[in-house]
# Entry
Amino acid sequence: DAGVTQSPTHLIKTRGQQVTLRCSPISGHKSVSWYQQVLGQGPQFIFQYYEKEERGRGNFPDRFSARQFPNYSSELNVNALLLGDSALYLCASSFGVGPRYGYTFGSGTRLTVV
Amino acid sequence: AQSVSQHNHHVILSEAASLELGCNYSYGGTVNLFWYVQYPGQHLQLLLKYFSGDPLVKGIKGFEAEFIKSKFSFNLRKPSVQWSDTAEYFCAVNADTGKLIFGQGTTLQVKP
# Structure
């Protein structure tokens, strides 16, 4: 059974550009969450989606947006990239929302902004 | 606001030594607590979790953690570490939504 898959695995972008990161959840999981992990820090929550609706948003600027598709896959978009957006972006899927659902993380997309 | 603090940023141990990684959280209500591990080049994996009941929880690979409500702590322990335990360890709390709040992580290096 496939785990959470993220694409691409690595990405280099220039300041000011836009980027789209993709995530496919585990089959049967209806919720997808996005996290940003800056080097030397723990992951920080960006968004959670469930059944195509946004269920939570972290403290990130409006340059960050996301959506979930009918097949439960998700995209994270970041506009007007800054050097500080360089990080590992993690996707986690779960069957539902709420504190007690287990989360499975993908391996992440390493974004470098130059 | 909820927060998680991990006291040790970098721990170096010899094989067979005992391990204890500290984790404190700030939240006055009911919390769900987790420890995740990230092996080099791999994705985050759940080690163990606490929701309610017995405050001593056992996880995979011989790890355990104890929830002490009065101290707002959830420390991770292992009696005897192995070289393969070299990894980064994250404590996380989830209080009211699906959002996980992570600590900054502890890098564990086990010398063979």
Observations:
- The longest strand of chain B covers residues 87-94.
- The interface with chain A takes residues 4, 32, 36, 42-46, 49, 51, 90, 92, 94-105 of chain B (CB under 8 Å).
- Chain B has a mean pLDDT of 93.
